[in-house]
Amino acid sequence: MGTESKYFIPLSEEQTQVNSYSYEIGDEFFESLEDAEIKRGKASVKLTCRKDSSSFALHFSIDGMVYIPCDRCLDDMEQPISTEGKLIVRFGEEQETEDEDTIFLPESEKGIDVQWNIYEFIALAIPLRHVHPDGLCNQEMAAKFASIVVGGEEDPAHEGGQTEKPTDPRWDVLKKIKK
Q1: Residue 1 falls inside a structural domain
Q2: Are residues 115 and 29 in contact, defined by beta-carbon separation less than 8 angstroms?
């Protein structure tokens, strides 16, 4: 990704104090990124670039929908995305800073490609646990899952139609104490 990318922001050539950019991203956006876990989606991205004396403040506003696997049934599910993010870009050698949103670019760079930054803001907006609303999971997969998991442990009686596996007698004694 270089200056030919449509997500390239030419910072060194910025003439005005504030510039705005707008992107409509779709499946091709996600597919073009290597190592991206999200492969499908659609979103609107609004980017404002404000020039200060020594830096550029980039403000991202992203609204849309991505398709990710449900944690429960593994079918794709729609996940709405609405997020905002900020990056500070400075030219010069990288310095120690407490602000993790600051990026340092070499003086020779003409700008920044924000495609991966847009992806990261989207990925960070996805909840840790993503499941279909009740009743919308793939029923076949849910039935298989229910037949294997009972109370958080595998139920050997349902595993491949086998009968219950013999247990270690020491555990049987401990189970009696528990009751």
Answers
A1: no
A2: yes
| Number of structural domains the chain divides into | 2
Asked whether residue 171 is assigned to any structural domain, the reply reads: yes
* Same domain (yes/no): 36, 99: yes
Question: In the beta sheet, which residues pair with residue 79?
Answer: 66
User: Averaged over 15-44, what is the pLDDT?
Assistant: 89
Asked whether residue 90 falls in the same domain as residue 146, the answer is: no
CA angle at 61 for the pair 105 and 120, rounded to the nearest 5°: 55
Strand partners, 87: 58
CA distance 137 to 126: 18
Residue 47 phi, psi dihedral angles, 5° rounding: -125, 130
Q: How many CB atoms lie within 10 A of CB 50?
A: 14
pTM of the predicted protein model: 0.73
